[in-house]
Each structure stands twice: as structure tokens, then as C-alpha cells.
Specification:
alpha+beta, 6-stranded antiparallel β-sheet, 2 domains, 4 helices, two-stranded antiparallel sheet
């Protein structure tokens, strides 16, 4: 079947007004001065009809849950422990050298209102050389709350002192007193 250009234009002239009326467009005048009226339909976007998405959990939530569970376990079951502490602090804007310390810590324990174990702390400094072999001992309620410190290091290594844990000598290389450890 062949179509001529005239028959094609004739068919389009008949079909075009019908198609335009289906989509809401009317031709009120001849094509050269046509006025097109478009009827607008208000359609609600699909996103507005959907329920809001469930809140997304924070990425650190599983880690925080595990940390809380671990802390609860430690506070109820662990009474004493040993560990190696690697300490490096910035004091007065200067980064201090790394210190390696073996620590032994016992927590306060009461049974029926009677103290069966006092909180205590023992530190043995391994490095750097300036503090190597320094030992610190603190027992809650003993020695008037003072630290017993064997100096260690390269000078006066066997000198033993009783120091206030919050005093200048004990806090010289630390921002926190050792009694807050553990």
C-alpha cells in the first residue's frame, strides 16, 4: 500500500484534532492563529503517598552497643588485671615521648559492707631510658593516700619518695593523676 503526501496530510488533519482533544488541547482558530489551551492535571507524586523511610541507624551504633556490653561485663566480673600501657601525651603544647608501662590494677571490692579488697595500682616503667625501672605503688586508704615511687631512670635510680598524687612532682609528665587509672 502506498501513501501519497496528500493522503497523509489529509489523514493527519483528521486525526490531529482528535488526538489533541484526548490530551486536553483544543484548536480554537486556524493553525496560523491557533490558541492552545492545556488543562493541567494535579497529580500527587508517588513519594508523597509512600510512608517515610525508617530511620537509618548511626554507623557507630553497633560499636557503641558492644562497648557498653563490654563495660558492663568488666564492671561486674573483672576485679583485677595486668596490662601494658603505651602512653603518649601532649603537655603544654609539646608531644611527650612514648612511655611503655606494665600496670597491675585491683578494683575496690566490698562484701556485706566490709572492704575485702582496696583499690590499688602498681606501675613499672619500661621505657624511655630516663624513666626505665621506675616503680609506682598506690593503695587506697594507705600511706595517707600518697604514692610510693622508686625513681628509676639513669639518675638516682634507687631513690624512693612518697608523693602527693595530685602534686607537681607526680603530675610533671602527666595530665591526669595515676589514681584515676584503671
Amino acid at each position: 500500500m502506498t501513501f501519497s503526501a496528500d493522503s497523509y496530510l489529509l489523514r493527519m488533519a483528521v486525526l490531529l484534532p482528535a488526538v489533541l482533544s484526548l490530551v486536553g488541547v483544543s484548536l480554537a482558530a486556524p493553525p496560523e492563529a491557533a490558541t492552545i489551551t492545556v488543562n493541567r492535571l494535579d497529580i500527587t507524586p508517588p513519594q508523597a503517598m509512600l510512608p517515610p523511610p525508617p530511620p537509618v541507624p548511626h554507623p557507630l551504633e553497633p560499636a557503641m552497643k558492644r562497648a557498653t556490653e563490654s563495660l558492663n561485663f568488666l564492671t561486674t566480673h573483672v576485679r583485677d588485671y595486668s596490662c601494658r600501657v603505651v602512653k603518649q601525651e601532649r603537655i603544654d603544647g609539646r608531644l611527650q615521648p612514648m612511655e611503655f608501662i606494665d600496670a597491675k590494677i585491683r578494683h575496690h571490692l566490698e562484701k556485706a559492707g566490709v572492704v575485702s579488697q582496696r583499690e590499688s595500682l602498681y606501675l613499672h616503667f619500661l621505657s624511655p631510658a630516663a624513666v626505665a625501672d621506675r616503680e609506682v605503688l598506690w593503695v587506697e586508704g594507705r600511706n595517707n593516700g600518697r604514692l610510693t615511687v622508686r625513681r628509676g631512670g639513669t639518675r638516682f635510680q634507687y631513690l624512693t619518695l612518697d608523693l602527693d598524687p595530685h602534686g607537681d612532682a607526680a603530675m610533671q609528665y602527666s595530665r591526669y593523676p595515676v589514681t584515676e587509672s584503671g
